[in-house]
Amino acid sequence: MEKILGVEGGEEVMRKYVVGSVPTVMYIPEYISPAEEDLLLKNIYQAPLSKWKTLKNRKLQNWGGVVHEKGLLAQQLPSWLKTVTNRIYEESKLFPSAINHVLINEYLPDQGIMPHQDGPAYMPVVAILSLGSPVVMDFVPHPNLESTEQSSENDTQDMIHEPSPPEPKIPSKYLPFSLLLMPRSLLIFKDMAYSGYLHGIKDSEDHCYDEAVNATNGPSHDAGTLTGLKNDGEDGGDKVIHRTTRRISLTCRLVTKVHKHLIKI
Ligand SMILES: O=C(O)CCC(=O)C(=O)O
Ligand SMILES: [Fe+2]
């Protein structure tokens, strides 16, 4: 990726990476090199087994400390994570201070993550670095845009908000959309895309990226040229990812309320 330093203001810097019709969704293909991807994977799988928490449909590592409704009981990020989070922070200019929390999710080919909204403890901006198998991430308008403030007791480790029961409050201008997340890409979404939408990944081995806002038919485009993708139709029919390997994602966020003294390291 070319350097995107030296321009004032993240909005300006990141404008060229906006995809789709929601202007707060940005996608950067090949944000890291294959060697950087390998190094991250090596560090992730060198972590002690006890670092993994197994959930029903994926497993995860939590780095940076424990997130509570009231803030972060902070722990230093390890240097191998700081390298990449500082780069994202400095280059995107979208975070008000350095990223201090990273969730690493591992998904097997038939695993995904339910549609959810990230919790209120975080700044409403998230950067997701993808490694391994490509997947499609779906965004749907929050079923209840007027009451996104409810607290989440169910999974403080994840700080995920499950949607409240659907109510017909969706302004028609908010349309669902999908993104194709290729390995080594960086997705950043914020503000309206963060608070007004739920995001999720289907727990199926085949993902259709026909409707992905960052995939076109052009063979030179990111989507068309990389591995793991096939075109099932004779002439531009269904575009399908058949997931054969695991996907690992790094969800990088900032918790502004930090309690530094509560956890000694
Ligand atoms: O794996 C991903 O790309 C999404 C993860 C996510 O949404 C989360 O950790 O809140
Ligand atoms: Fe999320």
Automatic annotation (TrEMBL):
It holds the Pfam family 2OG-FeII_Oxy_2. GO terms for molecular function: dioxygenase activity; metal ion binding. Residues 142-169 are annotated as: Disordered. The keyword Oxidoreductase applies. Its main location: nucleus. The keyword Metal-binding applies. It is found in: Nucleus. This is Alpha-ketoglutarate-dependent dioxygenase alkB 6-like. It comes from Salvia divinorum.
